[in-house]
Design goal:
Number of helices: 7
Shape: globular
Helix content: 10-25%
Radius of gyration: 22 Å
Number of strands: 27
Structural class: alpha+beta
Length: about 450
């Protein structure tokens, strides 16, 4: 009996030991329930102390490995070298995908600055496929491109394109806070851009004719919405829409009541006419929409958005009525308020879980704990007669594969591709080559993901 107890204690200690190492190293699966449980009960101050004493040698080795990769990235400049090649299997269905990663010449995210640091806002980067080229823009506004076919070689051979973003901001007497998306449509390259001027923080859209020598951006659309303090709730996704229009997501900018006020553009998805620049409200009650896709045949707007503490959502807007749909924020959410906002939500009677029971559109899928949801892309698999939605994530470092029924109202299956130590900001589908391109942040890179036969 004593032997069993001793063995059990040793086994439990080992599990906790390795769990603690996962926490202090930062390399744990953010969706692992056991690790999340340990993280809840172990104070962060204690975890840091353990890291700097008990785990100091393995921690230094991990940091050295990470820094070595960063040095390699820096030294290779605009080569866009291939630095990782492997096969990965999905968590549930064991589907095998090939993965290749190439360096990007952009600054990396610095987690030690904290998620609220404006400096990290300038380290969110985006990509776009335009014909046989791939364009990328850094959070600081640097623009590059390379040939799509170079993804089959050892180097991307990236080329820098000069642009006038700094001049635009200088003329506005404004400070760049960060680029929020990159989008191409009909010979124009669009960016959404957040800046700060004498009125506060705001977000707008700029566009430039595609030119491989210099991009001359001009203002396309201003929200004329301002907020006093920097926050990460700006939205900014762009997507092609019907009738010569594009659609644009705008976050609630930490102004909770604005999401339900139709006269405000905060917490909304709107359409914008490319000729007249007139806009129309498509939906409201949004928190921070991060992903956007329009299914033109079925007339469905698909979007993802960050919840608060939990409650990340995948939402479908079936455009079957000529009225804006309400998605419920801040009244309904499957998440919880962050510390400091609990009393605000209690006072206003917000944070009801059910959307439908309160007259709002119910999410097709919600994630608790949060995955740090980002972009999404719909792909129809004709051979298997499946409707697949690929959803990327920052916090969970994953791409989730959701299989939908014929009505697009029910998730039949959920699978997950997990990429340790990755934050996936952007996701594109290369239809010609049947492969995905995604952008990772910790080590700025473009990855190519393709299902093997």
């Amino acid at each position: 009996m004593k032997k069993k107890i001793i063995v059990s204690l040793i086994f439990s200690s080992l599990i906790i030991f390795f769990g603690l190492w996962s926490i202090v190293s930062g390399g744990y699966d953010k969706q692992n329930k056991f690790i999340l449980f340990l993280k809840e009960i172990i104070p962060s101050s204690l975890a840091k102390k353990v890291r700097d004493t008990v785990f100091i040698i393995p921690d230094l080795k991990e940091r050295n490995k990470f820094l070595s990769i960063q040095v390699e990235k820096y030294e290779q400049g605009y080569d866009g070298r291939l630095f990782n090649k492997q096969n990965i299997s999905s968590k549930k269905n064991n589907e095998v995908y090939s993965l290749k990663e190439f360096f990007l010449p952009f600054p990396r995210l610095d987690t030690r600055l904290g998620w609220k640091a404006t400096e990290n806002s300038k380290r969110a980067h985006y990509i776009e496929i335009i014909g046989d080229k791939v364009f990328a823009v850094s959070g600081l506004g640097e623009t590059i491109y390379f040939n799509l076919s170079n993804l089959n070689s050892e180097k991307l051979e990236q080329k820098k394109i000069n642009n006038n973003i700094d001049n635009l901001l200088s003329n506005l007497n404004a400070e760049l806070i960060g680029i929020r998306d990159l989008f191409y449509d009909n010979q124009f390259l669009y960016i959404s851009l957040q800046h700060k001027d004498k009125n506060g923080y705001t977000i707008g859209i700029y566009r430039a004719p595609v030119n491989y020598k210099r991009l001359e951006f001009e203002k396309f659309f201003s929200t004329n919405e301002y907020w006093d303090n920097y926050n990460v709730f700006s939205g900014g996704r762009l997507e092609k829409f019907s009738d010569n229009k594009i659609i644009f997501t705008i976050g609630f900018a930490n102004k909770h009541k604005k999401s339900q006020q139709k006269k405000s553009l905060l917490g909304k998805i709107i359409s914008i006419d490319k000729e007249t620049k007139d806009h129309k409200l498509i939906s409201y009650g949004h928190r921070n929409p991060q992903g956007l896709f329009y299914h033109s045949d079925l007339k469905i707007i698909m979007n993802t958005e960050h919840g608060p503490k939990g409650g990340d959502e995948v939402n479908f807007n079936f455009l079957d009525e000529d009225r804006p749909k309400n998605f419920g924020w801040p009244i309904s959410s499957y998440g919880e308020p962050y510390p400091g906002y609990v009393e605000v939500f209690k006072k206003n009677g917000w944070m009801k879980t059910s959307h439908k029971e309160n007259g709002f559109v119910e999410p097709v899928k919600q994630f608790t704990p949060s995955i740090g949801i980002s972009e999404l892309f719909y792909v129809k698999n004709n051979s298997e007669k499946k409707h697949n939605l690929f959803v990327s994530s920052l916090r969970a470092g994953s791409i989730y594969i959701l299989t939908l029924d014929e009505t697009f109202k029910k998730v039949l299956d959920e699978d997950r591709l997990y990429f340790p130590n990755k934050r996936i900001r952007d996701l594109k589908y290369d239809k010609k080559n049947n492969q995905f391109l995604f952008l990772s942040e910790y080590t700025p890179s473009i990855a190519v993901l393709k299902k093997t036969k």
